Amino acid sequence: MLLQQLSDARGISGCEREVREIIEAAIDGLVDEQRVDTLGNLICLRRARRPVEGRPLKVMVAAHMDEIGLIVTGVNKDGTVRFDKVGGIDDRILLSKQVLIGQAAVPGVIGYRPIHLIARKEREAAPDLSRAAIDIGATSQSAAERLVSLGDPITFRTTYEALEPGALRCVKGKALDDRAGCAVLVELLQHDYAIDLYAVFTAQEEVGLRGARVAAYGIEPDLAFVLEGTICDDLPKGDEDTSHVTEVGKGPAITFMDRSFIADRRLVDLLVETAREEGIPYQFKKAAAGGTDAGAIHLSREGVPAVTVAVPCRNIHAPVSILSLNDLENTHRLMAAALQRIQGSLS
Fold first, then answer.
1. Confidence check: pLDDT of 234 > 90
2. Out of 205, 206, 228, 247, which one is annotated catalytic?
């Protein structure tokens, strides 16, 4: 399964090659042009295959290849490895997590002082990661340096797996933000449209939407869709307000606003009307939080109408996330139907 391949692949920001190679194999024969630009974006073009009057619209659909992770910043005398974060990670989720370091996938565990040696007051605060280190089993600095180097990328050691069969068809894995979007975008390349579809698998989204910025500048799209994995907080909240940003199993989430952009209302309306007429479940992302590649794309050149459609993911930006394959498939259905409705300029 493509999603499993993509989830298990290792590719923090700036190190997306393994992910890109899987996608290149998956899209073989589906695109008319493809190239890899300077930042590592994979830019593909599937030309209009249905009749259209005049110039086909250039529609950019983007999904980012990179994942959150860590990077080696030093090696201690005792052979443990110092690290820093790549992307937005809550320090509290890192303790005792298994990781893989560098191209050789050296296994390690993020270590911290045991609870017995932490003062009660300190336990109430977030851990001080300057006191954490990755234990790779080495007993000296020289031994560790034979295995890892400064700047080596570090990914979480998480394996894709289907959870107990049920109506939601949930799976767990790492980097579902945004390998879910990448999987949907590959599927979209199997349909025919009356547009020139620029499928862009972007680099370095997690560190500032960098790949999307340069890709959009070069393409100059007429409009853009961004495919994402998004915040889902539908687990029990006790006595708190029970409203949720998104919910697993309720369909793709349409973003009307986040911290990086405000969605073009014409594109929001297109998605909503398509979902209703096609009988596809959908929901809105009910928090103006986070940011996506749409934040960079919509500011390119003289501006680009843009909207984000996302698969809800529990435990996002963590070593392991959960999504519903139903939501993944309905995201594909919604996007394919919406793209097939685009014939000319937005009214």
1. no
2. 205
